[in-house]
Amino acid sequence: MTTNVNQILTMDIDPRYHLLALEHIAQLKARYCRYIDTKQWEKLASVFTQDCRFEGLGSAPAGADVATFVKGVSARLAPTISVHHVHQPEVVLTSASTARGVWAMEDFVEWQDGGAVKEAPGAKGFRGYGHYEEEYRREGDTWKISFLRLTRLRIDPVPLDSSNPRMGSRQATPDWIEQATARPPEELLNWSTN
Fold first, then answer.
1. Res. 194 pLDDT band, cuts 50 70 90
2. To the nearest whole number, what is the mean pLDDT of the chain?
3. CATH number corresponding to 12-163
4. How far is CA 40 from the centre of its chain?
5. Which of 49, 72, 145, 169 is the most exposed place for a label (fewest CB within 10 A)?
6. Which secondary structure element, helix H or strand E, spans residue 20, and what is its range?
7. What is the 3-state secondary structure (H, E, C) of 61-97?
């Protein structure tokens, strides 16, 4: 028997839990993009389950495990300026502790060292468009990515003669969120509705 989306959407799950789960998954995906673009490789592995598998990525072979993916993406993107944006999520809970999603994505990757760009030969980078197809699993109180596939609809090369990048006037603070959550509990506002 095949389960369709309407059956999944009408599962007996508390609507508040459903909304919170979707928000946690969205935050998880945002961390994935931030960790890659700010080159926080040591934190990147934390967004995945230990048995996560990857497909469709230029930095790791199909079926790669977490360690292989992080090693590959960190080596490949270290000499780049990268910008990953995800939007328009379609996420459904498939049980109280699993979910599946599709995110529209756009990425810009420009090599600063003259390295070869396999997605756009003869260019110094690319702008790509496509989708992330993912599965998620809740481990304790934390949602993690348990499967990640990148699909591409289009890739536009960044020509070798394009202008050199200009860094923004304010660079990212890699641990901005972590700084806020490290404050003592008594300093945090009580958001209770009681």
1. very low
2. 89
3. 3.10.450.50
4. 13
5. 169
6. helix 15-37
7. CCCECHHHHHHHHHHHHCCEEEEEEEEEEEEEECCCC
Q: Which pairs with CB-CB distance under 8 Å and at least 24 residues apart come from 50-54?
A: 51/146, 52/144, 52/145, 52/146, 52/147, 52/148, 53/147, 53/148, 54/147, 54/148, 54/149
In the block, which residue shows the tokens 């690319």?
A: 126
Q: What is the CA radius of gyration of the chain?
A: 19
pTM of the complete model:
0.86
What values do phi and psi take at 89, rounded to 5?
A: -70, 140
Question: pLDDT band at 164, cuts 50/70/90?
Answer: confident
Please tell me what DSSP assigns to residue 14: -
- For 156-191, the DSSP string reads EEEETTSPPP---SS---TTHHHHHHTS-GGGS---
Identify the three-state secondary structure at position 15: helix
- 3-state class (DSSP) for residue 119: coil
In tens, the pLDDT along 104-151 reads 999 999 999 988 899 999 999 999 999 999 999 999 999 999 999 999
Work out the widest C-alpha separation in the chain, in whole angstroms. Answer: 61
d(CA 138, CA 99) in angstroms, rounded, equals: 9
27, two tokens: 């935050």
**Residue 46, SS3 per DSSP:** helix
Residue boundaries of the structural domains of the chain: 12-163
Alpha-carbon distance of 12 to 85, in angstroms, equals: 33
